[in-house]
Predict the structure.
Amino acid sequence: MKKVVLLAVFVLGTAITYAGGYRVSLQGQKSLAMGHTGVAVINSSELVFFNPAGLVHLENKLNISAGVSGVFSNVAYQNEMTGESAVTDSPTGTPLYLYASYQANDWLAFGIGVYTPFGSTVSYEDDWAGSHLVNNIDLQAIFIQPTISFKIGDYLSIGGGPIYVTGSVNFNRNLNRTLTDLDGNRAEVTIDASGISNWGWTAGAMFKLSEDLTLGANYRSQIKLNAEGGDADFENVPNSPLTPFQDTTFDATLPLPAEMTVGISYEFCDKWLFAFDFNRAFWDVYESLDIDFANENIPDSRNLRNYKNASTYRFGLQYEATDMFTLRAGYYFDESPVRKGYFAPETPRNDSNGYTAGLTFNVGDSFQVDASFLYLHFKEVDASYDYYFENGQAAPFSGRYKSNAFIPGLGVTYKM
């Protein structure tokens, strides 16, 4: 019985580290409208995130971009063998960003960004079939990134800087499929950790091969988040020597994998711009999540994940329709890093297709209103998580999952 509760905490790492499941690709309205391309696109201070090397190429001395998106997502689960089904009832997520860049001279620029690439809330119906794996999870993470950009000659620029990450997570699940107290209330555990932080870095390069053709590359380092002294609270546990669960604390190290993005942009026919980005996330570093409990009666845990590296292919198109309006559209295909047998309902993540569109409305010479829309459709999948154990026996959890998300976004850009 003791080992049952250990699986309760593995989502602490999953939710924070899994860029595929809760990696919120909403780091700029202009870029998102073009399929979230941007590593080789010079348009605004959104480059702080996509490729700091491009900041030195911005025309204006000061460039500020800010925005927010509304994430309306849902997951439907069904086990065709048992007839059990459930849907999520998750509140609206609101990831945001703020970037600023300053052009010091012809060859030097500075920038800073605050953005939320990890942040989501998933909540299933009460007493659903997978409540022994997850009931709800609430994740918040903020990235702060100062940057510097240098121009080296007429064709090459480089840029980068440190990244500071701070976040928190709250997670709840039932201890197993049947355990209750004397009043019939399901036994459960809540995992809570805040102040999780660490440092990473990013570096990029941009090649202006001509006025129309640009190549870009950007690398973000792996970041390990160290959760120290997090709280594990148990409720509705029957008073029995067989269930010696007591509130305690825990430590865990949570890896965020490195990722590399390369891309190209090409301007043609005066008013058109095409962009393509290829992103590779190095998820193979996430083999397991190891958890150290302060309470010696609860043995430490090793929870296998065995993720694989995954790629994302992004395409974008921009058209300057008039002096007032710029129109954009895009598409991307995002591979899942989850291997067969490791599909867990707190990260119901499978291959997805993203369809995007948006526009910029120019209000005078200095102010712009940016809007975007993303429809994210996940491939329907019949999958299982095979590494849940109860009373020493494997108890795989399987079913069919359908997922999608509707994400409108609004932002502003100020230039001078």
User: Anything to note?
Assistant: The chain is about 5% helix and 55% strand. The helical segments are 2-6, 10-17, 19-22, 29-33, 47-50. The mean pLDDT is 85.
